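Risk register update: the risk of archive-format incompatibility is retired. Evidence:
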Amino acid sequence: MIAAKMIHAKRLSLAAFCIVILLHSATAAAATSPKTLHDFGVGSNDGSSLYSALIMDSAGNLYGTSVNGGKAGAGTVYRLSPSGAKWAETILYSFTGGSDGSNPHSTLVLDSAGNLYGATVEGGETNSACRLGCGVVFELTPTTSGEWTETILHSFTGASDGGSPFAGVIFDAAGNLYGTSVSGGANGKGVAYELEKSSGWQEIVLHNFAGGTDGETPYAPLIFDQKGNLYGTTYSGGSHNSGTVYQLVPSATSSSASWAERILHSFAGGSDGVNPFAGVAIDPSGNLYGVTQAGGSARCGVAFRLAAAHHWSEMIMHTFLGLSAADGCDATGGVVWRSGVVYGTTTGGGKYNPGTIFKLNATAQGWKETILYNFTGGNDGAYPSAALTTDSAGNLYGTTLWGGPAGDTVGGVAFEFTP
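Archived output:
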Protein backbone atom coordinates (compact mmCIF):
# COMPACT_ATOMS: atom_id res chain seq x y z
CA MET A 1 0.00 0.00 0.00
CA ILE A 2 3.00 2.34 0.32
CA ALA A 3 3.11 2.95 -3.43
CA ALA A 4 -0.65 3.46 -3.53
CA LYS A 5 -0.56 5.99 -0.68
CA MET A 6 2.32 7.90 -2.28
CA ILE A 7 0.60 8.15 -5.65
CA HIS A 8 -2.67 9.21 -4.02
CA ALA A 9 -0.88 11.84 -1.94
CA LYS A 10 0.59 13.21 -5.18
CA ARG A 11 -2.85 13.18 -6.77
CA LEU A 12 -4.43 15.20 -3.98
CA SER A 13 -1.54 17.64 -3.73
CA LEU A 14 -1.76 18.32 -7.45
CA ALA A 15 -5.49 18.82 -7.19
CA ALA A 16 -5.04 21.26 -4.31
CA PHE A 17 -2.43 23.38 -6.10
CA CYS A 18 -3.96 23.68 -9.56
CA ILE A 19 -3.05 27.27 -10.51
CA VAL A 20 -5.48 28.78 -12.96
CA ILE A 21 -4.42 30.68 -16.04
CA LEU A 22 -7.64 31.91 -17.60
CA LEU A 23 -6.94 31.13 -21.22
CA HIS A 24 -10.15 29.16 -21.57
CA SER A 25 -13.14 28.65 -19.34
CA ALA A 26 -14.87 25.40 -18.50
CA THR A 27 -18.51 25.27 -19.51
CA ALA A 28 -20.77 24.45 -16.58
CA ALA A 29 -23.85 22.36 -17.01
CA ALA A 30 -26.63 22.15 -14.45
CA ALA A 31 -27.71 18.69 -15.52
CA THR A 32 -28.82 15.91 -13.21
CA SER A 33 -27.15 14.63 -10.07
CA PRO A 34 -25.70 11.13 -9.81
CA LYS A 35 -27.90 8.43 -8.33
CA THR A 36 -26.05 6.65 -5.53
CA LEU A 37 -26.24 2.89 -6.00
CA HIS A 38 -24.27 1.92 -2.89
CA ASP A 39 -22.51 3.62 0.04
CA PHE A 40 -19.27 1.81 0.89
CA GLY A 41 -17.66 1.47 4.30
CA VAL A 42 -20.96 1.72 6.19
CA GLY A 43 -22.04 -1.90 6.58
CA SER A 44 -20.15 -4.65 8.40
CA ASN A 45 -17.17 -6.02 6.43
CA ASP A 46 -18.00 -3.80 3.46
CA GLY A 47 -15.29 -2.55 1.13
CA SER A 48 -13.74 0.91 1.24
CA SER A 49 -11.58 3.09 -1.03
CA LEU A 50 -12.44 2.53 -4.69
CA TYR A 51 -9.84 2.94 -7.43
CA SER A 52 -11.47 0.51 -9.88
CA ALA A 53 -14.10 1.14 -12.52
CA LEU A 54 -17.32 -0.84 -12.68
CA ILE A 55 -18.14 -3.48 -15.27
CA MET A 56 -21.62 -4.67 -16.23
CA ASP A 57 -22.87 -8.16 -17.12
CA SER A 58 -25.69 -8.99 -19.53
CA ALA A 59 -28.23 -8.97 -16.67
CA GLY A 60 -27.31 -5.42 -15.67
CA ASN A 61 -25.34 -6.31 -12.53
CA LEU A 62 -22.24 -4.26 -11.75
CA TYR A 63 -18.91 -5.60 -10.44
CA GLY A 64 -15.91 -3.89 -8.89
CA THR A 65 -13.12 -4.05 -6.34
CA SER A 66 -12.27 -2.09 -3.21
CA VAL A 67 -8.71 -1.49 -2.00
CA ASN A 68 -9.57 -1.81 1.69
CA GLY A 69 -12.32 -3.27 3.80
CA GLY A 70 -13.73 -6.78 3.84
CA LYS A 71 -13.32 -9.34 6.61
CA ALA A 72 -9.53 -8.90 6.80
CA GLY A 73 -9.30 -5.26 5.71
CA ALA A 74 -7.36 -6.30 2.59
CA GLY A 75 -10.00 -5.43 0.02
CA THR A 76 -12.99 -7.02 -1.67
CA VAL A 77 -14.64 -8.02 -4.93
CA TYR A 78 -18.31 -7.01 -4.92
CA ARG A 79 -21.44 -7.20 -7.05
CA LEU A 80 -24.24 -4.60 -7.17
CA SER A 81 -27.65 -5.82 -8.37
CA PRO A 82 -30.68 -3.66 -9.18
CA SER A 83 -33.03 -3.60 -6.18
CA GLY A 84 -35.15 -0.48 -5.87
CA ALA A 85 -33.65 2.94 -5.22
CA LYS A 86 -30.28 1.60 -4.04
CA TRP A 87 -28.81 -1.57 -5.40
CA ALA A 88 -28.17 -4.72 -3.36
CA GLU A 89 -24.50 -5.42 -2.67
CA THR A 90 -23.00 -8.89 -2.43
CA ILE A 91 -19.41 -9.34 -1.30
CA LEU A 92 -18.15 -12.06 -3.62
CA TYR A 93 -14.69 -12.31 -2.06
CA SER A 94 -12.76 -10.76 0.83
CA PHE A 95 -8.98 -10.87 0.42
CA THR A 96 -7.00 -12.08 3.42
CA GLY A 97 -3.73 -10.33 2.57
CA GLY A 98 -1.88 -13.63 2.28
CA SER A 99 -1.23 -15.83 -0.71
CA ASP A 100 -4.65 -14.93 -2.14
CA GLY A 101 -3.69 -11.30 -2.72
CA SER A 102 -4.33 -7.93 -1.12
CA ASN A 103 -5.45 -4.39 -2.02
CA PRO A 104 -6.89 -4.71 -5.54
CA HIS A 105 -6.85 -1.44 -7.49
CA SER A 106 -7.77 -3.07 -10.79
CA THR A 107 -10.95 -3.10 -12.82
CA LEU A 108 -12.34 -6.60 -13.35
CA VAL A 109 -13.05 -8.46 -16.56
CA LEU A 110 -15.79 -11.06 -17.09
CA ASP A 111 -15.62 -14.12 -19.35
CA SER A 112 -18.50 -15.74 -21.23
CA ALA A 113 -18.98 -18.32 -18.46
CA GLY A 114 -19.47 -15.65 -15.79
CA ASN A 115 -16.04 -15.94 -14.17
CA LEU A 116 -14.28 -12.78 -12.97
CA TYR A 117 -10.59 -11.93 -13.39
CA GLY A 118 -8.47 -9.21 -11.80
CA ALA A 119 -5.19 -8.35 -10.11
CA THR A 120 -4.02 -7.21 -6.68
CA VAL A 121 -1.17 -4.82 -5.91
CA GLU A 122 0.07 -6.78 -2.90
CA GLY A 123 -0.28 -10.24 -1.41
CA GLY A 124 0.83 -13.46 -3.01
CA GLU A 125 4.45 -14.51 -2.85
CA THR A 126 6.59 -12.65 -0.33
CA ASN A 127 10.34 -12.15 -0.63
CA SER A 128 13.01 -9.51 -0.06
CA ALA A 129 11.69 -7.48 -3.00
CA CYS A 130 8.09 -7.49 -1.73
CA ARG A 131 7.64 -7.86 2.02
CA LEU A 132 3.86 -7.75 1.69
CA GLY A 133 3.78 -9.72 -1.53
CA CYS A 134 4.22 -8.62 -5.14
CA GLY A 135 0.59 -9.11 -6.16
CA VAL A 136 -1.40 -11.74 -8.00
CA VAL A 137 -3.69 -12.28 -10.97
CA PHE A 138 -6.80 -14.13 -9.81
CA GLU A 139 -9.95 -15.79 -11.13
CA LEU A 140 -13.23 -15.96 -9.20
CA THR A 141 -15.64 -18.75 -10.15
CA PRO A 142 -19.27 -18.92 -8.96
CA THR A 143 -20.45 -22.21 -7.44
CA THR A 144 -23.93 -23.75 -7.34
CA SER A 145 -24.18 -22.80 -3.64
CA GLY A 146 -23.75 -19.12 -4.47
CA GLU A 147 -20.21 -18.91 -3.11
CA TRP A 148 -17.29 -17.76 -5.25
CA THR A 149 -13.96 -19.59 -5.20
CA GLU A 150 -10.62 -17.96 -5.99
CA THR A 151 -7.89 -19.45 -8.17
CA ILE A 152 -4.48 -17.77 -8.36
CA LEU A 153 -3.40 -17.68 -12.01
CA HIS A 154 -0.06 -15.99 -11.32
CA SER A 155 1.77 -14.79 -8.22
CA PHE A 156 4.35 -12.12 -9.04
CA THR A 157 7.84 -12.35 -7.59
CA GLY A 158 9.03 -8.80 -8.26
CA ALA A 159 11.86 -10.22 -10.38
CA SER A 160 11.83 -10.88 -14.13
CA ASP A 161 8.08 -11.55 -14.16
CA GLY A 162 7.16 -8.12 -12.79
CA GLY A 163 5.49 -6.95 -9.61
CA SER A 164 2.69 -4.77 -8.20
CA PRO A 165 0.07 -4.86 -10.98
CA PHE A 166 -2.13 -1.80 -10.44
CA ALA A 167 -3.90 -2.46 -13.73
CA GLY A 168 -6.32 -5.25 -14.41
CA VAL A 169 -6.22 -7.75 -17.25
CA ILE A 170 -7.95 -7.99 -20.63
CA PHE A 171 -8.79 -10.95 -22.89
CA ASP A 172 -7.83 -11.73 -26.46
CA ALA A 173 -10.02 -13.85 -28.73
CA ALA A 174 -8.29 -17.05 -27.57
CA GLY A 175 -8.95 -16.37 -23.89
CA ASN A 176 -5.40 -15.32 -22.98
CA LEU A 177 -4.98 -12.48 -20.49
CA TYR A 178 -2.82 -9.35 -20.86
CA GLY A 179 -1.75 -6.77 -18.30
CA THR A 180 1.02 -4.59 -16.89
CA SER A 181 2.96 -4.30 -13.65
CA VAL A 182 4.65 -1.16 -12.35
CA SER A 183 7.80 -2.84 -11.04
CA GLY A 184 10.04 -5.82 -11.72
CA GLY A 185 11.13 -7.02 -15.11
CA ALA A 186 14.62 -7.13 -16.56
CA ASN A 187 15.18 -3.45 -15.77
CA GLY A 188 13.11 -3.13 -12.62
CA LYS A 189 10.82 -0.60 -14.30
CA GLY A 190 7.77 -2.72 -15.02
CA VAL A 191 6.54 -5.13 -17.69
CA ALA A 192 3.72 -5.82 -20.10
CA TYR A 193 2.77 -9.50 -19.85
CA GLU A 194 0.54 -12.23 -21.19
CA LEU A 195 -0.90 -15.18 -19.26
CA GLU A 196 -1.32 -17.96 -21.80
CA LYS A 197 -4.41 -20.04 -21.08
CA SER A 198 -3.46 -23.11 -23.14
CA SER A 199 -0.27 -23.60 -21.12
CA GLY A 200 -1.96 -23.42 -17.72
CA TRP A 201 -1.73 -19.63 -17.44
CA GLN A 202 2.00 -19.50 -18.00
CA GLU A 203 3.30 -15.93 -17.98
CA ILE A 204 5.10 -14.49 -21.01
CA VAL A 205 6.76 -11.10 -20.66
CA LEU A 206 5.92 -9.13 -23.80
CA HIS A 207 8.01 -6.06 -23.00
CA ASN A 208 10.45 -4.99 -20.30
CA PHE A 209 10.21 -1.24 -19.79
CA ALA A 210 13.65 0.34 -19.62
CA GLY A 211 13.17 4.01 -18.72
CA GLY A 212 15.15 6.62 -20.62
CA THR A 213 13.52 7.14 -24.00
CA ASP A 214 11.40 4.07 -23.25
CA GLY A 215 8.60 4.38 -20.73
CA GLU A 216 8.59 3.12 -17.16
CA THR A 217 6.07 2.53 -14.37
CA PRO A 218 2.98 1.50 -16.37
CA TYR A 219 0.07 1.97 -13.96
CA ALA A 220 -2.46 1.83 -16.79
CA PRO A 221 -4.24 -1.19 -18.31
CA LEU A 222 -3.80 -2.30 -21.90
CA ILE A 223 -6.33 -2.13 -24.74
CA PHE A 224 -6.48 -3.94 -28.10
CA ASP A 225 -7.19 -2.47 -31.53
CA GLN A 226 -8.92 -4.39 -34.32
CA LYS A 227 -5.58 -5.68 -35.64
CA GLY A 228 -4.45 -7.18 -32.34
CA ASN A 229 -2.02 -4.44 -31.36
CA LEU A 230 -1.85 -3.36 -27.73
CA TYR A 231 -1.80 0.21 -26.40
CA GLY A 232 -1.04 1.70 -23.00
CA THR A 233 0.66 4.51 -21.13
CA THR A 234 3.58 4.81 -18.75
CA TYR A 235 3.53 7.26 -15.87
CA SER A 236 7.15 8.27 -16.36
CA GLY A 237 10.02 7.63 -18.76
CA GLY A 238 10.11 8.79 -22.34
CA SER A 239 12.27 11.47 -23.91
CA HIS A 240 11.41 14.01 -21.19
CA ASN A 241 10.71 11.59 -18.32
CA SER A 242 7.10 12.78 -18.28
CA GLY A 243 5.46 9.59 -19.50
CA THR A 244 4.55 7.96 -22.79
CA VAL A 245 1.85 6.42 -24.91
CA TYR A 246 3.11 3.19 -26.47
CA GLN A 247 2.04 0.47 -28.88
CA LEU A 248 2.99 -3.22 -28.76
CA VAL A 249 2.83 -5.05 -32.09
CA PRO A 250 2.91 -8.87 -32.23
CA SER A 251 5.28 -10.58 -34.61
CA ALA A 252 3.58 -12.21 -37.59
CA THR A 253 6.20 -14.94 -37.87
CA SER A 254 7.56 -15.67 -34.40
CA SER A 255 6.17 -16.83 -31.08
CA SER A 256 3.69 -14.81 -29.05
CA ALA A 257 6.61 -13.54 -26.97
CA SER A 258 7.94 -11.50 -29.91
CA TRP A 259 6.25 -8.13 -29.55
CA ALA A 260 7.81 -4.91 -30.78
CA GLU A 261 7.29 -1.70 -28.82
CA ARG A 262 6.76 1.65 -30.50
CA ILE A 263 6.59 4.91 -28.56
CA LEU A 264 3.72 6.86 -30.09
CA HIS A 265 4.14 9.95 -27.93
CA SER A 266 6.55 11.16 -25.24
CA PHE A 267 5.02 13.85 -23.06
CA ALA A 268 7.19 16.93 -22.82
CA GLY A 269 5.63 18.66 -19.84
CA GLY A 270 4.29 22.18 -19.92
CA SER A 271 1.28 22.59 -22.18
CA ASP A 272 1.72 19.03 -23.45
CA GLY A 273 0.87 17.33 -20.16
CA VAL A 274 2.76 15.24 -17.62
CA ASN A 275 2.36 11.79 -16.10
CA PRO A 276 -0.53 9.86 -17.66
CA PHE A 277 -1.76 7.61 -14.85
CA ALA A 278 -4.74 6.23 -16.76
CA GLY A 279 -4.80 4.28 -20.00
CA VAL A 280 -6.20 5.31 -23.38
CA ALA A 281 -9.52 4.79 -25.15
CA ILE A 282 -9.81 4.02 -28.86
CA ASP A 283 -12.42 4.97 -31.47
CA PRO A 284 -13.40 2.96 -34.60
CA SER A 285 -10.81 4.87 -36.66
CA GLY A 286 -8.02 3.86 -34.31
CA ASN A 287 -7.50 7.29 -32.73
CA LEU A 288 -6.46 7.26 -29.09
CA TYR A 289 -7.87 9.45 -26.32
CA GLY A 290 -6.51 10.02 -22.83
CA VAL A 291 -5.71 12.37 -19.98
CA THR A 292 -2.64 13.31 -17.98
CA GLN A 293 -2.53 13.75 -14.24
CA ALA A 294 -0.54 17.00 -14.37
CA GLY A 295 0.95 19.48 -16.81
CA GLY A 296 -0.89 21.97 -18.95
CA SER A 297 -0.94 25.71 -18.34
CA ALA A 298 -2.57 25.30 -14.90
CA ARG A 299 -0.62 22.17 -13.91
CA CYS A 300 -3.94 20.34 -13.60
CA GLY A 301 -3.49 18.04 -16.58
CA VAL A 302 -4.82 17.86 -20.12
CA ALA A 303 -7.09 15.72 -22.27
CA PHE A 304 -5.45 14.66 -25.54
CA ARG A 305 -6.04 12.78 -28.78
CA LEU A 306 -3.44 10.95 -30.87
CA ALA A 307 -4.51 10.74 -34.52
CA ALA A 308 -3.74 7.34 -36.07
CA ALA A 309 -3.92 8.63 -39.64
CA HIS A 310 -1.49 11.46 -38.97
CA HIS A 311 1.48 9.61 -37.53
CA TRP A 312 0.01 9.79 -34.03
CA SER A 313 0.15 13.57 -33.91
CA GLU A 314 -1.12 14.94 -30.61
CA MET A 315 -4.03 17.33 -30.22
CA ILE A 316 -4.74 18.94 -26.85
CA MET A 317 -8.52 18.66 -26.56
CA HIS A 318 -8.75 20.48 -23.25
CA THR A 319 -6.47 21.96 -20.59
CA PHE A 320 -7.91 21.49 -17.12
CA LEU A 321 -7.92 24.74 -15.15
CA GLY A 322 -8.76 23.65 -11.64
CA LEU A 323 -10.75 24.94 -8.70
CA SER A 324 -10.50 28.69 -9.36
CA ALA A 325 -12.13 28.22 -12.76
CA ALA A 326 -14.59 25.61 -11.41
CA ASP A 327 -12.90 23.19 -13.80
CA GLY A 328 -11.51 19.76 -13.08
CA CYS A 329 -7.96 18.97 -12.00
CA ASP A 330 -5.89 15.81 -11.65
CA ALA A 331 -7.49 13.46 -14.17
CA THR A 332 -6.41 9.97 -13.13
CA GLY A 333 -9.40 7.85 -14.10
CA GLY A 334 -9.12 7.92 -17.87
CA VAL A 335 -11.83 8.50 -20.46
CA VAL A 336 -14.41 6.54 -22.40
CA TRP A 337 -15.34 7.26 -26.05
CA ARG A 338 -18.99 6.89 -27.06
CA SER A 339 -20.50 8.01 -30.39
CA GLY A 340 -18.00 10.80 -30.86
CA VAL A 341 -18.23 12.10 -27.28
CA VAL A 342 -15.52 11.61 -24.69
CA TYR A 343 -16.58 11.22 -21.03
CA GLY A 344 -14.34 11.21 -17.99
CA THR A 345 -13.79 12.23 -14.39
CA THR A 346 -11.27 14.34 -12.52
CA THR A 347 -10.13 13.47 -9.02
CA GLY A 348 -9.92 17.12 -7.94
CA GLY A 349 -11.11 20.52 -8.97
CA GLY A 350 -14.61 21.47 -9.94
CA LYS A 351 -16.81 23.90 -8.04
CA TYR A 352 -16.10 22.33 -4.64
CA ASN A 353 -12.74 20.56 -5.26
CA PRO A 354 -13.64 16.85 -4.79
CA GLY A 355 -13.74 16.29 -8.54
CA THR A 356 -16.00 16.34 -11.58
CA ILE A 357 -17.72 14.39 -14.32
CA PHE A 358 -17.01 15.99 -17.70
CA LYS A 359 -17.62 15.46 -21.39
CA LEU A 360 -15.72 16.62 -24.47
CA ASN A 361 -17.41 16.97 -27.85
CA ALA A 362 -16.09 18.25 -31.16
CA THR A 363 -17.33 21.60 -32.46
CA ALA A 364 -16.37 23.83 -35.40
CA GLN A 365 -14.11 25.73 -33.02
CA GLY A 366 -12.47 22.62 -31.61
CA TRP A 367 -13.24 20.35 -28.69
CA LYS A 368 -15.53 21.80 -26.03
CA GLU A 369 -15.59 20.71 -22.40
CA THR A 370 -18.80 20.60 -20.40
CA ILE A 371 -18.79 19.95 -16.66
CA LEU A 372 -21.68 17.58 -16.14
CA TYR A 373 -21.39 17.33 -12.36
CA ASN A 374 -19.36 18.79 -9.49
CA PHE A 375 -18.89 16.42 -6.56
CA THR A 376 -19.47 18.05 -3.17
CA GLY A 377 -17.58 15.61 -0.96
CA GLY A 378 -20.76 14.82 0.97
CA ASN A 379 -23.10 11.89 0.48
CA ASP A 380 -22.46 12.04 -3.28
CA GLY A 381 -18.84 10.98 -2.76
CA ALA A 382 -15.43 12.53 -3.30
CA TYR A 383 -12.42 12.15 -5.61
CA PRO A 384 -13.63 9.92 -8.48
CA SER A 385 -10.47 8.06 -9.48
CA ALA A 386 -11.70 5.49 -11.99
CA ALA A 387 -12.97 5.50 -15.56
CA LEU A 388 -16.68 5.59 -16.31
CA THR A 389 -18.67 2.70 -17.78
CA THR A 390 -21.57 3.19 -20.21
CA ASP A 391 -24.63 1.05 -20.85
CA SER A 392 -26.60 0.69 -24.08
CA ALA A 393 -28.91 3.55 -23.07
CA GLY A 394 -26.00 5.95 -22.60
CA ASN A 395 -26.06 6.03 -18.79
CA LEU A 396 -22.71 6.39 -17.04
CA TYR A 397 -21.62 4.31 -14.05
CA GLY A 398 -18.69 5.08 -11.80
CA THR A 399 -17.16 5.14 -8.34
CA THR A 400 -15.60 7.67 -6.01
CA LEU A 401 -12.47 6.91 -4.06
CA TRP A 402 -13.87 8.21 -0.76
CA GLY A 403 -16.85 10.12 0.57
CA GLY A 404 -20.44 9.18 1.16
CA PRO A 405 -21.86 8.58 4.66
CA ALA A 406 -18.68 6.76 5.77
CA GLY A 407 -16.67 10.01 5.72
CA ASP A 408 -14.34 12.15 3.66
CA THR A 409 -11.24 9.90 3.68
CA VAL A 410 -12.87 6.45 3.74
CA GLY A 411 -15.81 4.73 2.11
CA GLY A 412 -16.70 5.85 -1.37
CA VAL A 413 -19.84 5.42 -3.45
CA ALA A 414 -20.94 3.70 -6.65
CA PHE A 415 -23.16 5.90 -8.80
CA GLU A 416 -25.23 6.07 -11.97
CA PHE A 417 -25.36 9.31 -13.97
CA THR A 418 -27.52 10.21 -16.94
CA PRO A 419 -25.80 12.89 -19.05
